Amino acid sequence: MSDIAATSPEPAYITKLALQRLPFSEVKSAEDFFDGRYIKQRRLLILHLLRSTSTPILLQADTGLGKTTLLQQLQRQTTSDMRFYRWRNNISTLEQYQGMLKALATELASTNDEKSLANLLKERLSHLKKLNITPVLLVDDVQLLSEPEQQLLHSCLSWQDDEQQPILQAVLSMTAETKFNLVSTQWLDLPPLEFIETEAYLLHRLKSAGYQGDSPFPAKEIQYLSKASAGNLARLNALAHQQLLGIKAKTWKRTPKISLGQINWLRWSGGISLAAVIVLILIFQNRINDWISASTASQNTLELPEDISAEDNKLATVVVGDEQEKEAKMLSEREKLEALLAEIPTPASETSSAQEQEKLMPSAEAEQVVVEAEPEEKIEKETPTVPGPEEQIVNNENKTIAPKQVKKLELSILDKVHDTKWILSRPAKHYTFQLMGSWDDKEVDAFIEEHGLTGDVARFTSLRDNKPWHVLIFGVYPSKQAALKASNQWSGAMNNLPTWLRRFDSVQKQIKEKGVKP
After folding, report:
1. Is 413 a domain residue?
2. What is the pTM of this model?
3. Extended beta strands in 183-290, E state
4. How many separate domains does the chain show?
């Protein structure tokens, strides 16, 4: 969720650009649909495949690229040789059959028996195929269907006529990188919006909302919006809404400048390092020479004489009176040699071999540490995870509310929405999100039910252009930071909605000055 904030009842750019409504909201008419290059290519390809093949089409793309909008446009631009039915979620099999019969066969059923209704529907669909009319099911987010709904969809797509040919076609959509094995399909993707189409898309949405004139976005802002959104239409809508409010979610990263002094320092740093190495070599030259001479001496002492017998003869002829003097001389030379050998560093191979021997022979203390460490790892694995706030609430509700009561609450979600009295009782300096506004209050009801809004949800009606304007707000937050932090945790379709943050005093002022009863 982007950091969008405003203190006025409506975004200032709506009046400034003479817009009749938000330009970057949900596409609700054919005029709002942007038929870009890739979008038009996929739309025409889907229509061609529906006419020429009987294999269902699977449209896979990331969230926000326009899969749902494309399916809606197919249904709006229906042709004489095709009839579309939008698959409805969370309804009974009987209701699904009745909806299909009404949309595809333009007929109402007089029976409430599922088997009889299914046979009637097969008969009508087979008749449409004989008239060269293709009935098509449009199933959005097929991965979200429950197991019984998937089984019903599989059963419908397996219906065949007398010639053993499928009597139903389908266009299915789902998010990318999701496995789908329900039926055999032909796969299509939906690429992101190109940079060269970004400006045309934004201007199209503005003109659909009533704007007349050139694009209000400079070339640099177009480049920024295209790069930040990565061609995702939902993200582009939110960023463009921010831009019109005068808020930028991100700024360009500037390349750090290197001054002339830094360049000189880099130039001389290599020479300084080389000079330091030379000075160190000169300082320790004597010690290095001693290491070299000591290693040479050690090599000489390890060599055996060529003629051992000759050495034995020389030792045999030593005079007894000279033995003490020679022995002292040999001891002094041996001490010097040992001192030189002690200064020579131990090779890495010898130290590594010694460490490996120590590893191969662990001491009793090491074994004791390993034995004591095992219970700690076991305790960490067996430590239970603490449920989050939402899980705790669900657990508490399951303990106190019976299933029938939960169903009642779901059915009466609109009854839980607060009114103007509740809004006027909120602290004036607290914040709330305005989710939408509409001339039609039924659109507000549909929005609440579609997103399942509960909790601090309120609505009010005020005059705008001397007509009732229905507004929906959500949440009560003590500060702007708390509100923006909470909005970042919204999930699903709510995360892509253009919203703006308001203080309750501005909402209360709007109600007191222009508020009317709905």
Report:
1. yes
2. 0.53
3. 186-189
4. 3
